[in-house]
Amino acid sequence: MCGLTGFWNFKHTDSKETLLGLAEAMALEIEKRGPDSYGGWADENVGLSIGHRRLAIIDLSIAGHQPMISRSGRSLIAYNGEIFNAPELRAELISKGCQFRGHSDTEVILEACEYWGVAAACQRLIGMFAFVFWDREKKILFLVRDRVGIKPLYWGMNQGILFFGSQPKSFRKHPAWKPEIDKDALTAYFRFNYVPTPLSIFKGIQKLTPGTVLSIDASGKTDETRFWDLLDVAKRSINKTSKSENELIQELDDLLRDAVKRRMVADVPLGAFLSGGIDSSTVVALMQAQSDSPIKSFSIGFSEEGYDEAKHAALVAKHLKTEHHELYLQAKDAQSIIPDIPNWFDEPFADVSQIPTFLVSRMAREHVVVSLSGDGGDELFAGYNRYLLGNSLWQRIKLMPYWLRKIGASSIRALQPQRWDQMSGLLPARFRPRLMGDKAYKLADLMMLPSNQDFYRSLVSHWDKPEQVVLGGMEGKTYPWVGCDIAFKDFIEEMQYLDTLTYLPDDILTKVDRASMAVSLEARVPLLDHRVIEFAWSLPSQMKIRDNQGKWLLRKVLDRYVPRELIDRPKMGFGVPIDQWLRGPLREWAEDLLSYNRLKNDGLLNPEIIRQRWSEHLSNQRNWQYSLWGVLMFQAWYAKWH
Questions:
Q1: Alpha carbon of 473 to those of 423, 468, 597: distances in Å?
Q2: What is the pLDDT of residues 510-544, one digit of tens each?
Q3: What is the mean pLDDT of residues 170-194?
Q4: How remote is the C-alpha of 9 from its chain's centroid?
């Protein structure tokens, strides 16, 4: 895993010495992405400069150094990621007359792009990647991002200069960089607790859309080409497979075995994250089944009830006979790293699982340089609770006439949340829901929604009206449910599609990338091998959800390796009790960031609406942990970077 950065001054007024000096300074900002070595390249005749930080994984020699120039001298590449079918591509290129100097996958991509063309080469790659490719003859710069956005890549114009790189924090070292917050992007952030692609928090800077090749010529003209599109995959899969259950179980087992085996190749120590859930247990089981020695596995435990998966992970590890490492943390251990979060995320980002993800990455890095992760299983095999909610509760709500739903919602809201909480005290303890008033009001909100898309947006929204939070902000129409022309077989499939385009790259994969890179750990995600993705989309829904339980087919594969009783339990998620911490040990820290005067003086956010939620949360009337965490992470980010 690596980090890249660079810029193109189309006026090419800088000397080569200046270009190289700036690239080195910019790359130093992302040193954690690649602590092993630095490389820089510049051409003063065109004003282009590229910096690279390397975390050496395959071919640790100088032959893997970047930026790398092709054997012909016509092309250059700076690359972040890993290509897992590089040996096959190398052999094919050699058969066509190409020659290689080393054994790195970087050289394979470089020569493949030069031989086949950038987009055609990308279609052949199995892996995760973001790279810049420079055609020295045509003076065209190509920016490329992998199919589902496992690796990040930002680009855009600022003060007449094209900036590009793995993380925008690197742009800060260029004297022409004058960042300005995009209030519309900030508004979108408050809906999702992340800034959705293609937006970034900075005006003029974008995230490159996954599966895209962007070309830029010497005049600044841009052109986008899609080499892979989930919409095309979904359309091709309208007519689902008719294979038998046993055939599908075996096919998925074979696919996952190959995806995992390819990601076990490294010239450095390797292990895996293990939560004890279905996804990570499947990955670790397939690793151990294909290893002659115990796999190193890692899990984090918390003392708070309802947040500790470590005991489940330990049972799975014992069954698989892995070399298991676990670390139990007290609240103060997790809380101590919260002030450092803006150092890893150079855009505001507010998924609370960023905390345990960083902690398990930090622990793993003490033993390994590469760790496999189970991310992606929920999106592919319908594992999220919202899919079950959409398949049950929402379908029942939709059967009710809208006028009746309005009456029901009004009746719920006739009582304050505190009154609902008091009434819940009349129920036996085992049937008494926590924060009944909060849950009742959420049900009332759902009853008022007119469509499937509104239901989905409500489930993924932390502020339903984010324009009220950001002063002068407008929420754009950049989301994939706008203008989608595919007729999905069912609502669950539609939600899977939307999650894979948005939540997966912009939340899950961003979290894993930043948290692991903060400690110079490479995280690999075998479930997101594009062959697995395309297979999952060929499945009918009954192969994913049965008996109101998701991941049916994936569970059947895991049954071959791990007893069901070690896995079968309610889905927990990978989080921390932020709701309790905000009312307790984090209250003083949060109060400072959410103070009325601070919000008022910054002039970006509406202090009244934020203070109201803060008050309701502190009094235990409502559980606003996620929407408040979004504000807190923005405030902490703003204090750090502005």
A1: 40, 8, 20
A2: 999 999 999 999 999 999 999 999 999 999 989 99
A3: 96
A4: 31
CA angle, 361 then 506 then 223, to 5°: 125
Domain ranges for the chain: 2-228, 236-338+347-382+494-566, 577-642
Is the CATH code 3.40.50.620 the one for domain 236-338+347-382+494-566?
A: yes
Q: What pLDDT band is residue 622 in, cutting at 50, 70 and 90?
A: confident
Distance CA 461, CA 445 (A): 12
Which of 2, 98, 113, 122 is catalytic? The answer is 2
Instruction: Give alpha helix (H) positions in 326-384.
Output: 331-335, 341-344, 354-365, 377-381
What was the pLDDT predicted at 389?
83
Q: Which two tokens stand for residue 640?
A: 């750090």
Domain 2-228 has CATH 3.30.420.270: no
Q: Is residue 113 annotated as part of the catalytic site, yes or no?
A: no
pLDDT digit string, tens, across residues 333-389: 878 898 899 999 989 999 999 999 999 999 999 999 999 999 999 999 999 988 988
Query: Which tops the pLDDT comparison, 272 or 36?
Result: 272
Chain position carrying tokens 């052999």: 91
Cα dist. 462→188, 215, 445, 544, 615 in Å?
10, 36, 13, 27, 17
